Amino acid sequence: MAGTGTVTAATPSAPASAPAQSLSARHAPGTPAKSPLAVGYGGAVSSVDADATAAGIEVLRRGGNAVDAAVATAAALGVTEPYSSGIGGGGYFVYYDAHRHRVFTVDGRETAPHSATDQLFVENGKPLAFADAVTSGRSVGVPGTAATWQTALDRWGTRSLGEVLKPAERIARDGFTVDATFNAQTAANQDRFKDFPATAALFLPGGQPPAVGSVLRNPELARTYKELEAKGIGAIYHGDLGADIVRTVRKPPVDPAATRVVRTGDMTTADLAAYGTRLQDPTHTTYRGLDVYGPPPSSSGGTTVAEALNILEHTDLADASQVQYLHHYIEASRIAFADRGRWVGDPAFEQVPTAGLTSKAFAASRACLIKDDAVLTSPLAPGDPAHPVPCGSSGAAAPTTYEGDNTTHLTVADKWGDVVAYTLTIEQTGGSAITVPGRGFLLNNELTDFSFVPADPAVHDPNLPGPGKRPRSSISPTIVLKDGRPDFALGSPGGATIITTVLQVLTEHVDRGLPLVDAIAAPRASQRNAASTELEPALWDSPLKAQLEAIGHHFTQNPEIGAATGVQRLPDGRWLAAAEPVRRGGGSAAVVSPAP
To answer: Where is this region: Disordered (predicted)?
Structure first.
């Protein structure tokens, strides 16, 4: 029988009558409070969670570098943000090496089993309902997170995996304080979680979401981390831990009383043994004299952000009105997503024209589509980066396929000037909802990032499932250099809205002159080659909405888009760490040695 998570009451740091927005600041003794901004020396860490940020700072204080601290922060997020990350998932790691003056990337994306075909999510000739595919063994890709950690540490770290896992192991054993965001995310998944005994035992103590202010302990995950400390990642890819993952995927342990139909997966231990990360050159473009680096395919984040920036470089956004700034940002996003949908997939299976998509010539051929007084119609047809035609298109338009909306991002810098931007995920909030019994972590539903069927049968879709294939991602950890040195780095969760969040924060900071923390806090819009652009409430309720509608834009409301974090190197050598003041309950920014 699987063990259970342990929940106890925590002493609140605010009176019982405190307003809801203060709940995220309630913490057990020893847990640091959150702050969205920190400035100082010795390095910086920014994440969504105070315990995770503190884990990274602890490693920096002990002499570890940015890579060591990033892995420690990520492992802690696997405890405190288990619905968005963990060793059951994958991600993309972007690293600036101050000694070599180079940017490197690790593709730790999950892969499909080698038995997978383009019919993976098709039954009786029809695509599965998305919800049915998510909560299943069929949606689980071979996890890449632990392999990403080991790859990064082997290449650029200074500490062992066992050493940097220690803070996360301690948090899992001793517990973390449940805040309003964790409680709400649990409640939103309660119907799924209750159907899997191991998940319910951990995250639904007494059959209910853990109360705000209580302390959630995960002794099973603490033991799992301890096993990884002792045995290394071979425990997953060649050992007992991996065998438990495979057993869970192939026969999901469902409550006998559940009425949910949970499809099985076909992952094998051979699939785990064959898994490998990819070390690749980053995507690169210049923007307003800065060098912008991101993750290459299988992520579409780097190519799409780069293309949109190259398009926007044709407009003076610094002097534009706020309406024209938003209009051009929205239209550039629309165009870049049209091209992403046609051209980006796993480069091991598809001819992805990365150089063409990120080229200035291709962007120039697409930028002329944007008019100050008119709105493009979606779905917009893609261009051809191999043969750019001014204001031209190539082939039929196809709508953007759906992508889940949860992830987590962390950004780290050290005293030597190394920088990490790392986004990791298990896909949906709560992933597949399937916890590996006795192991304390949820499995991903990453394979639902594949297109189930082509968006348009007449248009080639580079993102259909295949054996060992990586599904396309929107993850966009981004590092920006100025004169060859780090200027700032950022990233965000949010599925396909990751790309637009990174693009908007970057342009709000570079073009509109907002301090990084204010650019992160600013209200967001997200256009992804769809009929309507999503707006957060602050934009929805502003006069800007009507002014944009007068040009021809259509909008739907999204209560929250993204949850960015970033770090910035200030001219005097100090580091600035920035996080969300409000989204997801607010993020946590910290530095090793705070400066007044």
So the answer is: 1-32
